[in-house]
Amino acid sequence: MSVSDLFKPLTLLHGPAMRNRFMLAPLTNQQSGRDGFASEFDQEWIRQVAQGGYALVQTCATHVEETGIGFDRQLGIFSDAHLPGLAEMATSIRKGGGLSAVQLHHAGHRANPMLGGIPAPASDYTVPGVRALPTEAVERIRDSFIAGAKRAELAGFDGVAVHGAFGWILSEFMSPQFNDRTDKYGGSLENRARLTLEVIEGIRRACGPDFQIGWRLSVERYGLLLEELRDITADILDRELIDYLDLALWDSAQIVQDGAFKGQTMLSVFTELPRRRVRVGAAGKIMSAQRAGQLMDEGCDFVLIGRAGILQRDFPLQVEANHFYESPKLPVTAEYLREGGLSERFINHMRGWQSFVIRGSY
């Protein structure tokens, strides 16, 4: 498949089609107000990427409960008071010609008490001195995800992306290591996946027929079992519960090191599944036009751009103009990011990433 195929439209189960195969990954940037309100820096970031040629732009992880906050200056969607700022973001994306989605997030046991978070573990032993969530609290968090989706729809977004990755609450409940519950949300894989499924199915019932639902899945760490994740993903794809699956891989080319799929690419474990009309894409070190094209050959319907989108806000337009485009080599100076339009808050966040900002550069 040639790089030019990345610019073919892609239909989704619900709502409008993607105009091409580029999706902006949900990028944590820690530049919102400390009350969860979208800041001027959020708005400027969204305005920049909205003009960058993406088919779909996701917000950063946006917490659905005030006490579910995971990191400082996190965007919120737990109150109707957040709607004006969110609506401005949705409008900017629409003006740029792309589809829009809010990534819905709850930090679970990693909710940060220093920021007003209340750790919400699946099990008693995860956080010292903190008891597991009672069943009714799990159901409340489920309903908060659904309420967040309804707010996103009211704000004018085309859909939401449910954050089921990186050990946050939905991923935590899926993990046999972090979930030893004996109620309906623990034990069997079916029970451990119940919270994710109830969130997705609840959003579909609560929102309009054109509203789009994505699901971000990671397959590493936090006690997650690849074979189990493959099984639950196969069920979700077969039942067409989502519009798109976002495989959050640290490296889209990584190889499975052990187990039943040893020697295969991690990506192929999921792209070889029957997907019916659900679209499947991947993130993970996609830093060039050629790598994006290769992923289409490897079974992806679209690609998610993260690091490359921070370095160059219009990555899709760069690829369209040059089919051999390559992102700047990392690390880069803070001044390079500043000249490109990143806020000081965003730059400070990127300093925490290994080998992204040259140490000592200002």
Characteristic key phrases:
alpha/beta, 13 helices, TIM Barrel, 362 residues, 8-stranded parallel barrel, 2 domains
Q: How would you explain this protein's 3D organization?
A:
This protein has 362 residues and is an alpha/beta fold. It has two domains: 3-328, Alpha-Beta Barrel (TIM Barrel), CATH 3.20.20; 330-362, no CATH class. The chain is built from 13 helices and eight strands. It has an eight-stranded parallel beta barrel with strand order 1-2-3-4-5-6-7-8, surrounded by five helices. Helix 1 packs parallel to helix 2 and helix 3 packs parallel to helix 6 (194-206). The longest helix has 20 residues, at 135-154. The chain starts with 21 loop residues before the first strand and ends in an 11-residue tail after the last helix. The model has no long low-confidence stretch (mean pLDDT 97).
How would the global form be characterised?
Answer: globular
CATH architecture of the largest domain: Alpha-Beta Barrel
Strand tally: 8
The poorly predicted ranges are none
Mean pLDDT: 97
Helix/sheet category: alpha/beta
How do the SSEs run, as a string of H and E?
EHEHEHEHHHEHEHEHEHHHH
Distance between the termini: 41 Å
Our Rg estimate from Cα atoms comes to 19 Å
Largest sheet, spatial ordering of strands: 1-2-3-4-5-6-7-8
Number of helices: 13
Strand content: 5-15%
Helix content: 25-40%
The CATH homologous superfamily of the largest domain is called Aldolase class I
Query: Biggest sheet, in brief?
Result: 8 strands, parallel, barrel
CATH topology (fold) name of the largest domain: TIM Barrel
The CATH C-level class name of the largest domain? Alpha Beta
Q: Tell me the domain tally.
A: 2
Keywords: Flavoprotein, Oxidoreductase
InterPro entries: Aldolase_TIM (IPR013785), NADH_flavin_oxidoreductase (IPR051799), OxRdtase_FMN_N (IPR001155)
Pfam family, one: Oxidored_FMN
Organism: Pseudomonas beijingensis
